[in-house]
Amino acid sequence: MRKPDNPDLPESCDLLIVGSGAAGMAAAISARHHGLNPVIIEKSDLFGGSTAVSGGAIWVPCNPIAAAAGIEDSRDAARRYIQGETGNLFNAEMVDAFLDKGPEAIGFFHERTALKMSCRVVSPDYHSDADGATEGGRALDALDYDGRKLGAQLYRMRPPIPDFTILGGMPLGRPDIFHFLRMTRSARSALYAVKVVAKYLRDRVAWGRNTRLVMGAAVSGRLAETVFALNIPLCTGHELTGLIRDEAGRVTGAEVKGPKGLRRVTARRGVVLAAGGYPHDSARRAASFDHVRRGLPHYSMSPTSGTGGAIAAAEAIGAGFVDTNANGGFWTPVSLLPNPDGSVRPFPHLFLDRAKPGVIAVGHDGRRFVNEASSYHDFVQGLIAKLLAEGQRSAWLIADHRAIRRYGLGAVHALPAPIGRHLASGYLKRGATPDDLARQCGIAPDALAHTLAGFNDTAARGEDPAFGKGSTSYQRYLGDAENRPNPCLRPLEGPLYAVEIFPGDIGTSMGLDVNAAGQVRDRQGQVIPGLFACGNDINSIMSGAYPGPGITLGPALTFGYVIGQTAAG
């Protein structure tokens, strides 16, 4: 099927939206629902932004989907939880707006658009032992989506990151991961895997790619179906270069660079900035990431188009930028896969390996430094502290043979996938003994042996007195339920494997100062008329904390929805 032509950029519209991730598409859909004529522009040649390649979780307390499933939650508990997570950086205005409007937004998208969702009945908040946390219901997922409904537009959507797929392009959703990890031990899981692979192979023949969209791609695909059904122009390859204001200071349009050169677009109700933050703006990243400023390496998993241009355009007309968050980004540890040209590409260690039994993390000094089963954000906070204290640039994840074959390690897939190419490339190290592995990795051999001996002694009893791995319901949720007595712990035995890890992110947390209506404020705290922002272009309502899965997409949908209401008056 031929790739569809890019629509012409109109000379005028009611609302010009910059960015085609969940936040931008949500704002466009909401604006259309409230009677406006919006237009979406996207800097990249592909729409979907970081949403399309994300895990796709949507975190909204007290949402109607969980309520319909009989799951109890309370606004007060959610507020206490967020306040405990953010401490003295708690943004009451934005959090209260999120808690008030989030359930309404979820109801709107679930009932009035193609974004159909289900709730995770069991999905503990990341700090499940904290006041106000829940064991499930707040995290939502888009239902798997048949990308064939997009027709030729599917080829304009950002495809899966190849390293996140198997068989040359097949992504795995959460149920898929469960069955694929067990397909060598369960006939039911093996049958499930065969059916999924067969459908993928048929898609490759008929469409040249996967058409079953899962996780973040399902969010993006479902929102896009509604965007196209509502005849909202989505112009890819169009970059915002500046904002236009009238004599009274109101934003009335933008300068846009596209295939036909530089153009001016009039936006009668204003401009919405939803371009994904600044994960690839090296200067701002160095200024707002303390560890980068202090010389540590850092790698982002976000699309490279996220260079902070929308934020810079807003600052050029006086917009305020909040740089006081506890963390400048949403952290994840990454390992580096080698490219044929000698460069590297990052791979995130989110939830598939670190929490599993038979896996530990150590520094070059051979000592553990963090609870491996903590959230990816918390893990990197521990990693950064370790690297700065040790004067190193990396650390190591170590797994034994049983663990790496059962769960995988980073980009190394579990059995029956081969591991030889990763050993040959140097991405994966293998040692017959701890001393052998240590010398290959530049780890202190005696210290590593001492660490393993101490860890193994207590892990055999399901205990980790040093860091408490497997001590909360969230951590045990990520472990292996078949491993007793602790799903996250057992001794490391036999040959050992290691992958080098570095600090990374899945998005930035600092951004433009906005109010509860999504309006951007200037450096004096006054609203800039006609300028709105949502998604990762705004300062995270979590103030640099990471309370649970989907704390970017939940607010993105909520404030995109709110902006549509605000712009329509």
Key terms for this structure?
single chain, 569 residues, alpha+beta, FAD/NAD(P)-binding domain, Flavocytochrome C3, Chain A, domain 1, eight-stranded mixed beta sheet, seven-stranded mixed beta sheet, 24 strands, globular
Tell me what you see in this structure:
The protein is an alpha+beta fold and about 575 residues long. It has 3 domains: about 1-55 and about 145-165 and about 210-330 and about 510-569, FAD/NAD(P)-binding domain (3-Layer(bba) Sandwich), CATH 3.50.50.60; about 170-210; about 330-505, Flavocytochrome C3, Chain A, domain 1 (Alpha-Beta Complex). About 30% of the residues lie in helices and about 20% in strands. The chain is built from 17 helices and 24 strands. Strand 11 and strand 12 (about 250-260) form a beta hairpin. Helix 1 (about 20-35) packs parallel to helix 7. The longest helix is centred in the N-terminal third of the chain and has 21 residues, at about 90-110. It is globular. It starts with 11 loop residues before the first strand and ends with a helix. The mean pLDDT is about 95.
CATH fold type of the largest domain: FAD/NAD(P)-binding domain
Number of domains: 3
CATH architecture of the largest domain: 3-Layer(bba) Sandwich
Structural class: alpha+beta
Query: What does the main sheet amount to?
Result: 8 strands, mixed
Number of helical segments?
17
CATH class of the largest domain: Alpha Beta
State the helicity in percent bands. Answer: 25-40%
**What Rg is obtained from the alpha carbons, in whole angstroms?**
23 Å
